[in-house]
Amino acid sequence: MFIVNFIRLLISLLAGGLVLLVGLLVHAVTWVIGRWDTAACDRIRWKYVRAAVRLIWFLCGGKTTTIGLENVPTDRPFLLVGNHRSILDIVLTLSQLPVPVGFVAKQELEKVPVLRVLMRDIHCLFLNRQDPREGLKTILAAIDQLKGGLSMAIYPEGTRCKEEGTMLPFHAGSFKPAFKTGVPIVPVTIVNMGDVFEDHLPWLHYVPVVIEYSKPIETASLDRKAQKELPDRLREEMLEIYARNDALIHPDKKD
After folding, report:
1. Which of 33, 80, 226, 254 is the most exposed place for a label (fewest CB within 10 A)?
2. Cα–Cα distance for residue pair 144/46, rounded to 1 Å
């Protein structure tokens, strides 16, 4: 088993390095294309990143059951809101989304060479969690991107949850981009991601994972009271979805 885990980790690391190197080439070529056709530039970059994360998930991920992908709008921008347990959450989600989506990611990822280039190529934003003023600038940038027609994704817990089966409190500010623009919120709940990687560092385990996209929540008509209540209400609903799907993975698990 040790040899299998080591080989899988090695192949994944080599593939990740190749993805980054080819990504630099794609970035350079599309930069030239973008001087004449920005739409083509964005389209090529998105297709490359989606293909890249599909490869990474194929090598690193688990046996995936997807529920409700048809709930993701393809005709209008939306704010994707998900629970956050693993560094592979973005990989899995990006590999499935049918339309371009920029993620609001932690500022630390902006310090990773090459990776930050690819993330910027698909209009990801980097959130400074220590400086409220800088954090507000990121939220305002997300609002502008939604107004421009690009969907965004954010993890309202603010950081990765260390315990499987629960979720950290949802930050109300994470929902402001949807409230300010009136775009729908699409909740996504991922189950058992910690068992893929974080619970067995540095080894990768091929285990069952369930990802469920809930029906869009329309925000344009929500009053202030409903907006204030939504983060806690949505967290409770996602915890219920998590428990239901976790029971599919672990039918013999006791509370």
Report:
1. 254
2. 19
User: Do the strands 185-191 and 208-213 form a parallel or antiparallel pair, or are they unpaired?
Assistant: antiparallel
* 43 C-beta neighbours (distance < 10 Å), count: 14
Q: Residues 6 or more apart from 49 whose CB is under 8 A from it?
A: 23, 94, 118, 121, 122
**137-194 pLDDT, tens digit each:** 999 999 999 999 999 999 999 999 999 889 999 999 999 999 999 999 999 999 999 9
User: What is the residue whose two structure tokens read 């389209």?
Assistant: 43
One-letter amino acid for residue 56 of the chain: I
Hey, what domains does the chain have and what are their CATH numbers?
63-200+209-249 (3.40.1130.10)
Cα–Cα distance between 53 and 61 in angstroms, integer? 10
- Within the chain, where are the H helices? 2-34, 38-60, 89-96, 115-121, 132-147, 176-181, 224-249
